[in-house]
Amino acid sequence: MHRSLLIILVVAILISGCAEPTAESMLRDYTQRVSNAIDYPIEFNVSQASYPSLPPRRDRRVELTPLREGVFDVLRLRHCDLLPLIAERNSNLGRVMTPSQVLQYELRFLPAIQACEETLSHRSQQEEALKPLLQRVQEIRQHKEDQLPLVIWNAIYTSPEMEQQFSRSSYPFDLMSKGLINQVQQTLDPFLVIAKVANTPFNELDHEFIASIEDFYEQLYRTEVGSQWLRSTALLTEAMHAVADGIEQRIAERPICFNQQPNNQARIIQNVFRNFYASEFQPYLATTDRLGQRWVSIHMELLETLPIPSSAEEYFLSIFDINHTGGFLHDYEQAKSRHITAWQNLLDHCGLMAGQP
Fold first, then answer.
1. Helix (H) or strand (E) holding 169
2. SS3 for 125?
3. Which candidate, 357, 211, 227, 212, places its Cα nearest to that of 292?
4. Buried b or exposed e, range 276-302, using 16+ CB within 10 angstroms
5. Residues 155, 157, 158, 159, Cα dihedral to 10°
6. What is the DSSP code (8-state) at residue 48?
7. Phi/psi class of residue 47: alpha, beta or left (left: φ > 0; alpha: ψ in -120 to 50)?
8. Rounded to an integer, what is the distance from CA 95 to the centroid of its chain?
9. Distance CA 179, CA 183 (A)
10. CA trace torsion 234, 240, 241, 247 (10° rounding)
11. What distance in Å separates the CA atoms of residue 62 and residue 171, rounded to the nearest whole number?
């Protein structure tokens, strides 16, 4: 019995020893190496590496103005073939549509009502009795166009699929992550196409694209790139601030090198810089940066096109706007600047340069 338990423990230890390093373990090791090299405590607190929570759905949802009662009744006339669409929306399933299904419906309805208006416009020139109907159809078309940006906002930023991109329960990127930038592009590009329709409703999307909308949402659901980027960025921000704090305080308290002359400790520092900062930390930072720049730029383009509700504006600016003072992305950029400056000062303090052997 005891022998079996011993074997299990040995196997568990061997397996854990062979486990692939994670971003958290790499950053923990990196901060510890710097701490040992400068002989100063540096605490990398993973629990403090957090990012803002996505506001509740009710704070992100924009309320739509319904059409006035009875306005659809005129569309039941034979002059416009819209009865199937209207019946679809008024059915039991139509009343519980998901955000993506509402979007798909509206993108189908708008070109149909535009075509109806065009037809009635031509016919009313010979049939005076159609002019009141044409006016009512024009009201509906205008209402639908005015509401479309709000519908698109709700469809994108209140959908469960997009909410997952801001989850706080994801793991960071793997150290060897590849192909993620293309994944971001492929996942979010369709939503850019949809968002642009908000300001140009007469440039309707083709039927095949509209029919594929649910596929775009499924693809979004199957990726966690956004939340992984947020987690990786939060960890990097915490690690960079911690290392910068340690280096700054160590140099301020007592010198490491006398008159900028390298000594044994300076050589240890140089080795840590080369083997851990340049070889492990910097590549992971660069990968996270490149992916984040693409992810952020697409969302910024979306937000510039769509109406952000005031109750959610602070959150999205914090996440995506690098110039939003005190925001998540702004803090990340500040941490990068502090981290680089701290290392430069440390190397200069001992008369060393980054590429010096």
1. none
2. coil
3. 227
4. bbeebbeebbebbbebbebbbebbeeb
5. 70
6. G
7. alpha
8. 30
9. 6
10. 170
11. 31
For residue range 61-117, what is the model confidence (pLDDT) as tens digits? 999 887 765 555 555 555 677 777 777 776 666 677 888 888 998 898 888 888 888
Q: How many CB atoms lie within 10 A of CB 218?
A: 12
| CB distance 347 to 353 below 8 Å | yes
Tell me the per-residue pLDDT of 185-218, one tens digit each, with 9 for 90 and over.
Answer: 899 999 999 998 887 766 667 889 999 999 999 9
**Residue ranges covered by each domain of the chain:** 20-61+158-357
CB contact at 8 A, 139 and 125? no
Question: What single string gives the DSSP state of each residue in 77-144?
Answer: STTS--HHHHHHHHSTTGGG--HHHHHHHHHHHHHHHHHHHHHHHHHTTT-GGGHHHHHHHHHHHHHH
In terms of C-beta density within 10 A (0-12 exposed, 13-18 middle, 19 or more buried), how is residue 129 classed?
exposed
CA distance 227 to 220: 12
Looking at residue 76, its pLDDT comes to 57
What mean pLDDT comes out for the span 141-170? 93
3-state secondary structure of 321: coil
Confidence of residue 15 (pLDDT cuts 50, 70, 90): very low
CB atoms within 10 A of CB 93: 9
CA dist., res. 54 & res. 226, Å (int): 12
Residue 208's contacts (CB-CB under 8 Å, 6 or more residues apart) are: none
C-beta separation of 307 from 150 below 8 A? yes
pLDDT score of 357: 43
Contact 217, 262 (CB under 8 A): no
Tell me which amino acid residue 139 is: E
CB atoms within 10 A of CB 141: 20
Half-sphere exposure of 83 (CA within 13 A, CB side): 6
Q: Residues 6 or more apart from 264 whose CB is under 8 A from it?
A: none
Residues 6+ apart with CB under 8 A from 352: 262, 266, 269, 270
Q: What is the token pair recorded at 48?
A: 């403090």
